[in-house]
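Input (aspartate--tRNA ligase):
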Amino acid sequence: MASEESEVPQINQSQEEEGSNQGKKLSKKEAAKLERQRKRQEAAASAATAALSAVSVDEGPDPLAGNYGDVLLNDLQSKVVSGRQWTKVELLAPEMRDQVVLIRGRVQTIRPVGKKIAFVVVRERGFTVQCVLTVKPELVSAHMVKFATSLSKESIVDVEGVVTVPEKPITGATQQQVEVQISKLYCVNKAVPTLPINIEDAARSEVEIEQALEKGEQLVRVNQDTRLNYRILDMRTPANQGIFRIQSQVENIFRQFLLSEGFVGIHTPKLIGGSSEGGSAVFRLDYKGQPACLAQSPQLHKQMAICGDFGRVFEIGPVFRAEDSFTHRHLCEFTGLDVEMEIKEHYSEVMDIVDRLFVTIFDSLNDKCKKELEAIGRQYPFEPLKYFRGDKKTLRLTFEEGVQMLKEAGIEVDPFGDLNTESERKLGQLVAKKYGTEFYILHKYPLAVRPFYTMPCYDNPAYSNSFDVFIRGEEIISGAQRVHVPEFLAKRAEECGIDVKTISTYIDSFRYGAPPHGGFGVGLERVVMLFCALNNIRKTSLFPRDPQRIAP
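Output:
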């Protein structure tokens, strides 16, 4: 039985310099460089194609021509329902030995062996299988082998064949215990011969690149801007497939947990009059002749929903921030996971929800996403998150206790100010060393650094009934008890320099009977970034929007 690992080296591209264009037009120098690179790639691709096409075959009519070829557009226009059943690549297993299967996927690699054999690795949604094409009378012709070797990588194909079990595992595929002996091969859609970036290059880890350099070899490093410019290709890497499947899982667990706790899912408007929180960092626009902006958060409308007698609500939706934050953790648009709930006695009830919700999320990811986490770890190695589980509650420290820990470590922090990024990271290190956890809650922040609707502490109005939550030394959640008394709310708004007239409908909603309540908001992308210890939030945003990028 023919069997061979299909780890085919792809044609190397010249490394592109770290671009700052981020969705803008390229400079003349950059454009010229990319054009030279394109010509080199085309020349190399032509040479490779010529080599693959060197298989000598009879150019006469092929009696087996019906077993392979390009699918015509007419046949792809929902022409007929044939009843054929496609098998998912991830389901291919030794138990299916000798069964005829039909699979659809992308051509990941092609390896011709002599004139009568070709190995084609087919990938479907991150899972791969090695398919073998061998010339056989009345089944596979040399013309068919030549057709297979002419296919461009990333083209979409239908493969029909028999499942076999190789003598040795196929280490170049995820489905290592099986092969598919091809009997029919059809190209559903062709990819261009020369891709802007190769998937193999985009999937390469920094560890591999550094190890190669130590040996005097130079491998292609695909820079972040290049990845984002060609995001359609970049998202096909195993790591990115894992990242966004984990992101989907976080969203699902968030929703399911809150529904089980009696929360109601809502959808609030993203177009609002005035400023959502009174800040200047909003995207302003004209709304039919009226000044308006894109909401910084659904905060105000969440509170109004509580006044509408829902008791407990949550929302998953876009959040817009217009800050010029050129950091590894800020975006101008991200997916917000927001919660608001009635409080019976104490804002610790909100922190209790945070505790159980996120421990449930972490447990579920570790239990149900092992393959995805392994795929991410191969390209971006990381240590599993340390957090308290079971009966042990998530660590809670007051802001003053955090400041004291920093002070004892030689770091001075304003006890009535906020923590900067460096202080947050240092505190995270101190907490991990002292308590053995990378997930903790810091509460009772100074009132001066919180929004106007935050409830002050009863015993010290300089502090507030608020909290932040941290993963690996970085903040992911901001929450608090809200002010629900309209007169006090208006007073707080004025003290913060907000024109009360611009939020009059919000304040008025508390005049009809409002329960004590609180809530929190978290960025979905940041949760995934920090759980997987990734170094940039753009890795966890499918099509990131930052101060310099609005495409693709």
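The longest helix spans residues 28-52.
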